[in-house]
Amino acid sequence: MALVEHDLSPQQWALLQTLWGGCAYCGATERPLQRDCVQPISRGGRYTIDNIVPACGPCNASKSNDEATSWMRRKKLAERASLTRFVEVRPALAEASGEDAEPSTSAFSGLPATSN
Predict the structure, then answer these.
(1) 76-106: pLDDT as tens digits
(2) How high does pLDDT run on average in the chain?
(3) Which residues form the domain of 65?
(4) What pLDDT does 92 receive?
(5) Which of 83, 49, 84 has its CA nearest to residue 68?
(6) With DSSP H G I counted as helix, E B as strand and the rest as coil, what are the percentages for the chain, rounded to 5?
(7) Which of 64, 82, 110, 115 shows a CA-CA span of 20 to 30 A to 1?
(8) In angstroms, what CA-CA distances link 53 with 2, 7, 83, 105, 116?
(9) Is 116 inside any structural domain?
(10) From CA 46, how far away is CA 28, in angstroms rounded?
């Protein structure tokens, strides 16, 4: 079965796990990581390198179909740290994928600054 434009390749998933170094939400490093759509597909997100982050099972299950930033606020997780990490990881993802480092439509683009 051929990949379609919204598919995440196994190589991209491996790169995401390496660059994040743990759960994108809580930072856990001792748990297996799962693919999580920051902006859920049911809310218009896509299954792409710009919208997928590694998440531990508890965070992925708790977040469910919620949008990441509002869920993180409710759970009192370090939203600012996660957003900052995304900004740090993004250039390496872009370089490895041969993309522009600052796409106009990324999972976290346009989100307001937070006080966390």
Answers:
(1) 888 788 888 888 888 888 887 776 555 434 4
(2) 81
(3) 10-92
(4) 86
(5) 83
(6) 40, 10, 50
(7) 64
(8) 23, 14, 11, 15, 20
(9) no
(10) 24
CA–CA separation, 103 and 43 (whole Å): 19
> What is the pTM for the complete model shown?
0.74
Phi/psi at 35 (nearest 5 deg)?
-75, 130
Does residue 100 lie within any of the structural domains? no
- Count of the separate structural domains present in the chain: 1
- Please report where in the chains the tokens 């990581």 appear, as a residue: 33
Write the CB contacts of 82 (distance below 8 Å, at least 6 apart in sequence): 24, 25, 68, 72
Domain CATH for 73: 1.10.30.50
> Domain for residue 101, yes or no?
no
